[in-house]
């Protein structure tokens, strides 16, 4: 098995909810900040959305591959990823991350 290495470039300016940042992924920039609903800038995605999305991305690709490997007739996998944060604002942490897949496909019989 080969070893793989990945990297991203990120930048951030400002403090806490007042700050904003951006990550460059394959030449495309995605901005992020705290949501305006909690007093942040509300520009781009939130940190939490990016983390939940990353989990969903990994899950969807892995699930699709496993279904195909088992010979199941999958044509598409959709993912709904949700997370809950508790302890805001002083001790924020995720209390739950739920990944709900929808699998499309089947035999044309």
Structural class call reads alpha+beta
Strand proportion, as a percent range, falls in 35-45%
The number of helical elements comes to 1
Strand line-up in the sheet with most strands:
1-2-3
Terminal CA distance = 39 Å
| Number of domain units | 2
Taking all residues together, what is the mean pLDDT?
94
Count of β-strands:
5
Radius of gyration: 18 Å
Large-scale geometry: elongated
Major β-sheet, in short? Answer: 3 strands, antiparallel
Could you state the order of secondary-structure elements as H and E? EEEHEE
Low-confidence stretches: none
What is the share of helical residues? 10-25%
Polypeptide structure, described:
Helix content is 21%, strand content 39%. The chain has 1 helix and 5 strands. Strand 4 (74-86) and strand 5 form a beta hairpin. The strands form 2 sheets. The protein has a 3-stranded antiparallel beta sheet, with no helix packed on it. A two-stranded antiparallel ribbon has the order 4-5. The model has no long low-confidence stretch (mean pLDDT 94). The chain starts with 8 loop residues before the first strand and ends with a strand.
Looking at this protein, list some descriptive labels.
elongated, OsmC-like protein, two-stranded antiparallel sheet, 2 domains, 109 residues, alpha+beta, OsmC/Ohrsf, KH_dom-like_a/b, 39% strand, three-stranded antiparallel beta sheet
């Amino acid at each position: 098995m080969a070893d793989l290495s990945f990297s991203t470039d990120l930048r951030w300016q400002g403090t806490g909810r007042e700050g904003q940042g951006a990550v460059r992924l394959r030449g495309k920039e995605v901005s992020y900040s705290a949501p305006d609903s909690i007093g942040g800038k509300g520009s781009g995605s939130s940190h939490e959305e990016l983390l939940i999305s990353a989990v969903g991305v990994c899950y969807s690709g892995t699930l699709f591959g496993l279904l195909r490997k088992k010979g199941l007739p999958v044509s598409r996998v959709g993912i709904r990823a949700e997370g809950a944060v508790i302890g805001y604002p002083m001790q924020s942490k995720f209390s739950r991350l739920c990944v709900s897949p929808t699998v499309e496909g089947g035999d044309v019989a």
